[in-house]
Amino acid sequence: MQCRSVYTFWVGIIVLAFASCAGDNSTGSKPDTSTSEADPLPSWNEGAAKKGIIDYVRAATDSAGGQFIPVPDRIATFDNDGTLWSEQPVYFQLFFAIDQIKAMAASHPEWKNQQPYKALLENDMGTLMKQGEKGLVEIMMTSHVNNTSDEFAATVKQWADTALHPTKKKKYTELVFQPMLELIHYLQANHFKTFIVSGGGIEFMRPWAEQVYGIPKDQIVGSSIGTAYDYNNGKPVLRRLAKIDFIDDKVGKPVGINRFIGRKPVFACGNSDGDLQMLQWTDSNPLKSFKLYVHHTDSTREWAYDRQSHIGTLDKGWDEAVAKGWTVVDMKSDWKVIYPFER
């Protein structure tokens, strides 16, 4: 991906920043009675969205029905930002990048007089934006590379364990959506193999997503930077390089699914136009599929945004969902709680 693509991906969220178990592969074919008898989605209000999900899962797992889906084909993909956890006022990975630059600044006194770092450290958005794409890419690369994969994972894990969201005052990993956790576990209990397919960095998600979502780290597809093997005097490491390898967003999502999963999903969840191609790809599956959009409508408990938002824009995807009869979840009316700590 060229610098222009990286710039386009990050420029809007940098502006806003300164303005403010695994799927079971057994061959069982009947619905899991523990989840079909009890309420499998207790944080969901009764309504068309909840009913549609449950009806779909029951049909997909009923070997006597006409919509039965064999276990190997029960692939479910979930976007992460805005679908499994919040994404406002900027993508959480950008908060990580900003925090890393500020943490590294003590070892780089020259940054006080060197752009683009000077502008970032002074929260000077105007000057930062004048640095153009070169400056913005430099910020992202400085905060994410020139380390090993193990070192980066440890840094991300420490940040996830300690950093607080600037307005919610909660750990970022606490700002996950309880109803979506229930949906993941419901699908897993019915032998769907669940994947995260996100525009976020794959190595940014792996250190914490398995524990938080119950989705194994080898079932995460995301954007990636280049890496290189280094024998390192008998202590092998993977070094993270300052170059983009793959952007798993928009048209990249079907490409990533095909490359890393190898099966077309039958169940897909997203929240923005960045997920539209993933839902279209799922919709093209000859097997019965389920497409779900999370619509952010709750300005009190979370945020309300859609067509005009610079983060998580839901415009073309919303229109297509309505036209094709896909499920659109209204967070305000369909979810009893947003976050686990609200239960």
Give an account of the 3D structure.
The protein has 343 residues and is of the alpha/beta class. It has a single domain (3-20, 33-342), classed as Rossmann fold (3-Layer(aba) Sandwich), CATH 3.40.50. The protein has 14 helices and seven strands. A seven-stranded mixed β-sheet has the order 4-3-2-1-5-6-7, with helices on both faces. α1 (3-19) crosses α7 and α8 packs across α10 (202-213). The longest helix has 17 residues, at 3-19. The chain starts with a helix and ends in a 9-residue tail after the last helix.
Topology:
Blueprint: H1 3-19, H2 33-37, H3 48-60, E1 75-78, H4 92-104, H5 117-121, H6 125-130, H7 132-144, H8 149-162, H9 178-189, E2 193-201, H10 202-213, E3 220-230, E4 237-246, H11 252-260, E5 267-270, H12 276-283, E6 290-295, H13 316-324, E7 327-330, H14 331-334
Parallel strand pairs: 1-2, 1-5, 2-3, 5-6, 6-7
Antiparallel strand pairs: 3-4
Helix pairs in contact: 1-7, 4-7, 8-10
Shape call: globular
What's the CATH H-level superfamily name?
HAD superfamily/HAD-like
Counting structural domains, the number is 1
The span between the termini is: 42 Å
Mean pLDDT: 90
Number of helices: 14
Biggest beta sheet attributes: 7 strands, mixed
Topology, number of strands: 7
What's the CATH topology label?
Rossmann fold
Helix content: 40-55%
- Structural class call reads alpha/beta
Q: Strand percentage, roughly?
A: 5-15%
Major sheet: arrangement of strands:
4-3-2-1-5-6-7
Run of helices and strands: HHHEHHHHHHEHEEHEHEHEH
Q: Give me the oligomer status.
A: single chain
Low-confidence stretches: 20-36
